[in-house]
Amino acid sequence: MGKTTSGSPDDKGSLLSPEAMGGINAGKGFDFQTRYTVCHLPMWLQDGTFHQLFTEGTGDIDIRYLENGKSRRKHIQTKDHDVAPAEFKEVIATFRGFEADMPGVYQEFRLACPSLSPQMRPVETGLSRLRNAKPFYDDEPSALAQTQHGVDERMRNVGLSDEDIAFIHAKVYIDVGYGYLAHDEKALDHFIGRILDHPEFASKIRAMVLPAYDALLRKIGASKGVVLDKSSLETLLRSAVLTDLSAEASVTLWVHNWTKEAFTPPADYELDWTPLFDRGSRKVPSPNAWTNELVPQLDALRKQIMAAGAVRTIRFRGKCALSTGIALGATFPAVGSWAFEIPQPPAKDFWRSDATPTPGYVLQTEITEADPSGADLVLGLNIRGDGRTDVMRYVESTGQAPNAFVFMAPPSQGAQSIGGDGDAVAMAMAVREELGKLLKVRQLRTTRLFFYGPFALSVFLGQQLTSVGRIQLFEYQDPSYVPSCLLKT
């Protein structure tokens, strides 16, 4: 059953044992182990049950897999040199010590090294041949009796006991051929090859190189009978591949509301809210769903992106409700140096929230006084049309009269009223400025916001709505409006 003492540093199962502390104490002496871990991570990550990695825990590398709530653990010892019989026996003794102190915790023990000494190689080749043959003879295990006897004799010849041999057959594996891990450049080549085998990262690399393929297709197709020299072809490749690499650092975010679709480029982050939206009825999530589910997801996403690095540019893709756009912008505000790149058809170029605002932009503002004792403002933004009648009719039906109705619009209304991202940024900034003044003069802290305009502008507007109190958003849901997201700025 193993040792009965508790807490002794000599227990191999203790995290304070010399075996467990060796790598931590040695510091930089374990470059081989680090390279082994990094080069294998792309493979481990492709296993859907891979759960955790723990280095220098009960030895060198521990891996935990989790499936249907049940854990499976693998322990790996790495050696940066050829392993001879005496050291191999020490490794097996260490493995058996872990098993004795933590019975059944580990389902596999593995030794990884560049190679084995000449005396040990027959053991490794014999074990490998025996294990590779077992699936073929699974219905006739006696067919391998002589082979196993020969392997056992090889292990006895290097000083292993029958108990060691039984344990090796049950749980120990030997990995050789890792001489390349002694060199960073060779290890890097292997890492790149394994990253290319990972579906997620392979698709991103493919997306990066795809422009070069398309550019060459067009060039070759248009150059029949024309001599193309090396320099012109290299220039074409540099232009196609390196242009995107030299662009600013950014992340791609997909958010799904009405439909779930695939976009270009591939997503670095993705939020799927389609279960809460229905395109046919234009049904949007309830206020509680926005408050308790969706806005917290946006907050968590912001923290996740910030934790990953200093990137502050977001390439947005998705077909979403206007409330989603405003909430998204409010979560990633301009004052936090966040910038969005958003497609806004029919414009050919993406709209940027950090575009230069159109100089001298004139915002049209109309105020209709309502209840002097009203606790909030109703703000209607009329970009693609005049929604005053619908908004006022809806608000009156709620029986909650505002202090005033405020309607803001660009110099002209209609589909072309926002000429580009410069106009959009200018209008968003002007709305924030005017709303702030009205709330301050009237000593109010709440606004009911009705927005009718392009999606990109909704995001830009949300980015500007800071320090203006509580903003209740509304969505049009035939035949009228419904409350959606409550922003606390």
Automatic annotation (TrEMBL):
This is Uncharacterized protein. Residues 22-68 form the CD-NTase associated protein 4-like DNA endonuclease domain. GO terms for molecular function: nuclease activity. NCBIfam families: SAVED. Residues 298-485 form the SMODS-associated and fused to various effectors domain. InterPro entries: Cap4-like_endonuclease_dom, SAVED.
